[in-house]
Amino acid sequence: MACLVEPLRDSAFIAGGCCVCDNLGIESRKIEADVTGESVSKKFWSGNEIREGFLRFFEGKGHRRVRSSSLVPHGDATLLFTNAGMNQFKDVFLGLEKRDYTRATTAQKCVRAGGKHNDLENVGFTKRHHTFFEMLGNFSFGDYYKEEAIAYAWELLTSTQWFNIPVGKLYFTVFGGADMASNVHIGLDQISLNSWRAVGAPTERIVPLSGEEGLKELFWSMGDTGPCGSCSEIHYDMGPAASDEGHKDCKFPCDCGRYVEIWNLVFMQWNRDANGNLTPLPKQSVDTGIGLERVAAVLQGVVSNYDTDLFKPLIARAGELIYVTPGFRPDSDASLRIISDHSRAATFLISDGVIPSNDGRGYVLRKIMRRAIYHGRIWNKAQPFLHEMVYAVRDSMKRAYPELKETANQVANVVLAEEQRFTHTLDVGLRKLEDRVGDLRRLPLKDIERYVERLEEEGKVKLDHEVRKYKTENILFAKSDEELRAGAIDLLGPDLAPQLVEYVRNTARHRTSFPGEEAFKLYDTYGLPRDFIEDALRDQGFVLDHQQFDRAMQEQKTRARASWKGGAKEAANPAYAKVAESFKTEPDFYFGTTAKDCRIEAIITKIGPVNELIPGESGEVILDRTAIYAESGGQVADTGAFYDNSESQLLADVTGAFYPVAGLVAHKVVAKETLRVGDRVAVVADAERRARIIRNHSGTHLVNAALRNILGTHVKQSGSLNAPERLRFDFSHFAHVDAEELRDIEQQVNDEIRLNTEIETNVTSLEEALASGALAFFGDKYPEHNVRVVTIPDPRAARGFYSKELCGGTHVQRVGDIGVLKIVSEESVAAGVRRIEAVTGIGALERYQQQAETLRQVASKLNVGEDGILAQVEKLSQTTKQLEKELEAQKRKGALSQIDELAGRVQMVKGVKVIAAEVENVDREGLRQLVDSLRQRLGSGVVALGMPEDGKVALIAGVTKDLTDKIHAGKLIQALAKRVGGSGGGRPDLAEAGGKDTTGLKVALESVPSLIEPLL
Length: 1016
Ligand SMILES: [Zn+2]
Ligand SMILES: [Zn+2]
Fold this sequence. Notes:
alpha+beta, 30 helices, globular
């Protein structure tokens, strides 16, 4: 939570104070042998040192070190995950937001997966694809420009004080000019070219790229319109060993993998309008990004990012967990890389509040995790393991991301749950697959049957219907050519068999291809990996239609891309940005529900800024001050009205309010009288509604504190809603909160309410607030300064307060104003996330009254007083149970009455008594009892009973102990199950089956003697 890392002392590393460097002490000496045979740098730079070194370098150049923003982008619905350092500064670059610094540097957590940037399938099979990675960057918001950005990059990379990379390994690209849309031409980026020369880059290493290539590689834009500009990239020559195509002496910029882009300097130069015209931005800016993993590979002298100290400990741990030694085989190494990469992504995503689910961010997380789990199962199918990786990630990253120390246990729990769920899903998915295969089997079977029928019609063979069905199945699913030939001879005799074999091979078997779309659905819905599907199909004699599968996957990707465009932010109406430049709305809502003499600064409608709204029109109104609270931090917006300053004349209804950009409140209004820019109005919020909202908001803070006291400090807010009717609080917790805990929470909260302390609000810096123990909510974006801290004091507590939170909302004055807080529900909303809903004040009273009324009605229905309800309900339930028992007994009796009739239907098969019959009007238990009774009655023999049951078939077979050597009830029942399209099994003496095909029941039971006969 605090700054990324404390400044490190070099001596800490020399002394081996860093856990990561400990492992690599030996390695650092080996690095002399670089891939090209020359040493890059004398000093060994660990990943942690590179990150810290970068930030410290830019701090030394007057940059503010800003902490990494959450992987879940705040207030940018167009972006799936934070994927670049500049994301958190987008509004600053767009001029919508101002900060008190103009230079910043960050180490930003990024995830690219499932979007346009990265195909998950590649990760693990290449040297440089990752789902999670860290982007180091320096940013200038209208401060320095190309010259300084290039000078800084040069110094950091080549100075002997810093990264000390030989200039002979570097290339610098500059934009060489290109024709843009509609006759707009941009020339060579002369400033960048000169800047590289000025710092000392040799001319032959500065490479201009122009035309199509220049546009593709070196032109950046935020969207179709808006800020854009050229880039200058720094590439590193990894040497011939890094060439994926085995090039020995190719020249830059060959894209065989030898030349790696390490740093991209983006210069925001122009604003592009809808016609493609470029006008210089008033404040030209710089946004740079250098991938930590890549620089680590460079400075540690290895070709692959996965061979750096950022990954090696993870790969080693993954190897221990799935019992594979790193370096064992190329495919096992790929699995280890996948597990290492994906466990970083999963750990950070879950730590930032993403939970595996079936859509949006949670879906991508789930896909990442399942891919890792699957790659573990390939090598060690037995046990969940991925949750253990969370601790390995924590250990290697906790220095830079201390929050991992707090969240690791919780994250590991979420991962474990997903592993268990996935195992279950695999089972369910495989069952679905098998069901579908069962259905599909019927088609080729019909083909063969028809073939045989034709032979019958021609008088060439004559077969029993059942025998034909059974034997054609053997033919279709023969595992080998011998089996196929044997089956054909068995069915048709030696003369006709060869033709049938030909037919099956050439025609019928072609229908054993499994539709690719259906397989993709199993892949997509149940997370069944493709390999799993193929294996399972092969076992069933089917093959996957690969083309269809690939097509379905491609379509899904296209859909995914369409829904997450990324990058192009749906810009707030530009009119707001203009207004925001000159002032912010004064928040009078902290002091009450009315504000007089508020000036209308702007009116915005669908068509843009206007000067007036006439009666009946709706629009959004910006005031210089307001008493209306705009929706934020979980607290819903106030409703209210504008009046003239005497408050006698209604001017407009206010239906809501929001922040179009930071610091600016837009009121959604419907005008009753004409409103003009410059008018002065009185703003009145609905006080009664506000009172209900703030009781719930203060209540939320109490609930948050109580949860942490009673369940533990792992509880983290993951969302909240403070509405007039109720409060809702979502939090991370892995178990169901039981009734006793809920009672404790409720009691503690109400105890605080009765203490009736006065709530304190003060404004301070983010750093100070966090240091004082205030809780922050990860999903919110806080400014560095002027954060509000809301404290509920409690003189009894050691820290002097019961609750302290960063919060921009409005609260009751004294905590006793809440009245009472009643929890009304507790439930799970996602794996590892619970939701509590509660009511306060009047809402609680209404709830009690409602429940009392329900109780009164129940008592009246039961014809007892309220005190008698429980006893009466108990009595009713006893009666119901008794009646159910009697009904059961009646059914049993009916079943047993069939015994005599069934016993009379004994057939003799080679001297063994066999009863095979259909029964009715019994349940499954009755059926079991019948089989038992009949076995006893026979003394020695075989009983097989079946019955239709809800459109399905139930079958039970029993064999007396003296016969189980020869006749296995389980095998018998399996043969019968086949005939009713089902499956079954059991012990040698008793077995059960179920099936779908009720029409096959009669034939199945009739086949019992013929099945037993060969066994005797
Ligand atoms: Zn090459
Ligand atoms: Zn709050």
